[in-house]
Design brief:
With 501 residues, this protein is of the alpha+beta class. It has 3 domains: 185 residues, no CATH class; 105 residues, Chitinase A, domain 3 (Roll), CATH 3.10.50; 124 residues, Chitinase A, domain 3 (Roll). Helix content is 47%, strand content 16%. The strands form 4 sheets. It has a 4-stranded antiparallel beta sheet with strand order 6-5-8-7. The chain has a 4-stranded antiparallel beta sheet with strand order 10-9-12-11, sandwiched between helices. Helix 6 crosses helix 8 and helix 9 packs across helix 18. The two termini are 50 Å apart.
């Protein structure tokens, strides 16, 4: 029996053009957010309603009305809340109050901040939309149906709370942003998304291009791995000029450690045997001395220059003095991670818990275990079906289309350029990068459900993909800048200030 819901709960992918992603994030409990007042239909929004049809920005020949600005402004606010949900309490901003009265930084209010983000997004979206139209891009019926599906999912999510989808949209994006208005804005960003996808796909860079860029920008691309430990000293309140004897103990301790260490194991052993207290041994993490993938800009200059020197070899060690301390450094490696990515097929069977009473002790755990067992049973049946058939990459893909709950199902479960830690399930990552051969397969269970994996082939080197992404981003930025410089862009700050609250 085929599944209709396609999800990707086992992997998290970063989209360089997330501003134009065709999918709207609705996995947050938006209905509950309305109920608790996180998003409010404010009086100020109602007062700003008379600006809806006034031009607040002019981008070349395109007029941006107040209603469109409200949509992008409030989208910037809600996106920020979602992206920084764990940090909101530390930022000192109250989203239920007027943002134009709350300082963000150096005289800029939070309203100014979100207004700037909205204006930038509007400008970029408008320019790209006009380019897409000029190049003949249109939305298919399937594209438009995807927006209808978004609204249907949204409506289903909040209807049980007694609210309509129009009420939610106007609460979230501003009065006047009804379902039809929302559709038009989504059509616009969806068309831009299609154009940008093709644009990025058109960017082509050779291995030589990547090597040349790397050689010219090595310090911004390389990362370093090393171990470090700091011996601190205190500067006395009063000390005679030239007297630095207060440093002697820390300096001697650092030099003694430097002399003793010969590898990573001896680095840790020396600390455990000669430096750390029993309490520190119990409380400090196992690899507290280890820094992996440190960038040149994130490490103090003198140490960074030493670590990123092309003359460094594994086992080099040194002591550096800075910030009232002597820092013992043991060099492990520096450079690009040159491993190859992978191409796989993935069939994911979600562990869907049946309804249960969470108030009963152990009810959730029992429901979860039952769901995982059920998912495993179905996955095992599918796996056996594949193995008893042609057992090819193509037949695996056919089963993925039919059964998988993963978002890649429609493409036969094919996932390209899988990098280390692409999947949130460690066992999956370990299997993929454990000297695989094309045709290898496995069934792995996780808290999410069951995963059937098929190893297709080795992919491009990870470092090259990273460089290509940077080159594409740079090329796109230049393209966008050229479009911006070719048109006149004006804003009505007075009207915008009335909308940005």
């Amino acid at each position: 029996m085929a599944k209709s819901s396609k999800k990707n709960t086992a992997a998290v992918k970063t989209n360089a053009n997330s501003s134009f992603s065709p999918a709207v994030i609705i996995t947050i409990c938006i209905a509950a957010a309305i109920l608790i007042g996180v998003i409010v239909w404010s009086v100020m929004a109602k007062q700003a309603n008379n600006i809806d049809n006034k031009t607040v920005m002019q981008i070349g020949d395109t007029e941006i009305k107040g209603l469109e600005f409200k949509y992008f402004y409030n989208n910037a606010v809600t996106s920020f809340q979602s992206e920084n949900s764990t940090l909101i309490s530390y930022l000192g901003v109250d989203f239920s109050q007027d943002l134009s009265t709350q300082e963000y930084y150096d005289g800029m209010t939070w309203a100014d901040y979100f207004s700037t983000r909205a204006q930038n997004t509007i400008t970029e979206t408008t320019l790209m939309y006009n380019e897409a139209i000029a190049k003949g891009y249109t939305l298919t019926d399937e594209d438009k149906a995807s927006v209808d599906s978004e609204l249907k999912t949204l409506s289903d999510a909040i209807s049980s709370y007694g609210y309509t989808v129009d009420y939610y949209l106007q609460s979230a994006y501003g009065e006047g942003v009804t379902s039809n208005v929302y559709k038009n804005f989504r059509y616009k960003t969806l068309l831009v998304s299609k154009y940008l996808e093709d644009l990025y796909d058109s960017y082509d860079y050779s291995a030589e291009d990547c090597e040349n860029y790397y050689n010219e920008n090595r310090l911004s691309l390389d990362t370093a791995s090393f171990r470090s430990y700091i011996f601190r000293y205190e500067v006395p309140d009063s000390v005679e000029e030239g007297d630095e004897s207060y440093k002697d103990e820390a300096r001697a301790s650092a030099n003694a450690m430097l002399e003793a260490i010969t590898d990573e194991a001896s680095f840790e052993a020396y600390l455990n045997e000669n430096v750390l207290t029993d309490e520190e041994k119990e409380t400090l993490s196992e690899d507290f001395t280890l820094t992996q993938n440190g960038t040149h800009s994130s490490i103090s200059t003198e140490i960074a220059d030493w670590l990123f020197d092309t003359a460094r070899v594994e086992g080099d060690k040194a002591v550096f003095e800075a910030n009232n301390a002597f820092n013992v450094i043991y060099f492990i490696s520096c450079g690009l991670d040159r491993y190859n990515t992978a191409e796989i097929r993935h069939i994911f069977i979600e562990a869907e818990e049946e309804e249960h009473d969470d108030s009963e002790e152990g009810a959730h755990e029992a429901a979860q275990a039952a769901a995982i067992a059920k998912a495993h049973e179905e996955a095992e049946r599918i796996y056996d079906e594949w193995k008893s058939g042609a057992a090819t990459s193509e037949s695996f893909g056919d089963l993925a289309v039919t059964y998988s709950d993963d978002s890649a199902a429609a493409n036969g479960g094919l996932v390209s350029n899988v990098y280390k830690n692409y999947f949130t399930v460690a066992e999956i990552n370990d299997w993929i990068f454990d000297s695989r051969t094309p045709g290898d397969s496995v069934l792995i269970d996780s808290d999410y459900g069951s995963h059937i994996l098929y190893y297709v082939a080795e992919g491009e080197p990870y470092w090259m993909l990273s460089v290509k992404s940077t080159l594409a981003s740079n090329e796109y930025s230049s393209y966008l800048d050229s479009l911006k410089s070719s048109v006149e862009i004006t804003t009505d700050e007075e009207l915008i200030s009335k909308l940005a609250k």
